[in-house]
Amino acid sequence: MKYTGYIDINKPIQEVVDFFAKSDNQKKWQDGFIKKEQLKGNGREAGAAIKLYYKFGKRDMILTESVISNNLPNSFESSYHHTHMDNTMKCSFVPLSEEKTRYQYEFEYTRISWIMPKLMAILFPGMYRKQGEKWIRQFKEVIEKQ
After folding, report:
1. What is the pLDDT of residues 105-131, one digit of tens each?
2. What domains sit in the chain, N to C, each tagged with a CATH number?
3. What is the pTM of this model?
4. Using an 8 Å Cβ cutoff, are 25 and 44 in contact?
């Protein structure tokens, strides 16, 4: 399952990229984010691994982010592992003007191994898309308020 999209942000590319690159900002735009733990490497450099902790209602979720490439300010790619699924995220930042940046993204779920998430993906594929796009919209809202 793969989906792509973009959102235009009313901020200069360097400001958008700097905000994106600082992983401490995740708590500002990803609801449910609790903390991160560096497992390998430095920050979000290529080869780094980071454990990400989330809480959604009574459910806890732990993901391991593995940074595939970090070519910021142009692009960033990482993979995410969870007990029941794996996915990748590719994003790029394109200046549209001095004060406007396009954030392009691609999410692909490469493994779903538990019956409930598989059923949800078959019956309600938009559910997976909604969460990623919600966080992208929140990213735009938070950075534009700064």
Report:
1. 999 888 777 665 555 655 556 666 677
2. 2-145 (3.30.530.20)
3. 0.86
4. no
DSSP per residue over the chain, as a string? -EEEEEEEESS-HHHHHHHHH-GGGHHHHSTTEEEEEEEESSTTSTT-EEEEEEEETTEEEEEEEEEEEEETTTEEEEEEEETTEEEEEEEEEEEEETTEEEEEEEEEEEEE-SHHHHHHHHH-THHHHHHHHHHHHHHHHHHHH-
Residue 57 to residues 34, 60, 110, 139: CA-CA distances in angstroms?
A: 12, 8, 26, 21
Mean pLDDT computed over every residue of the chain: 89
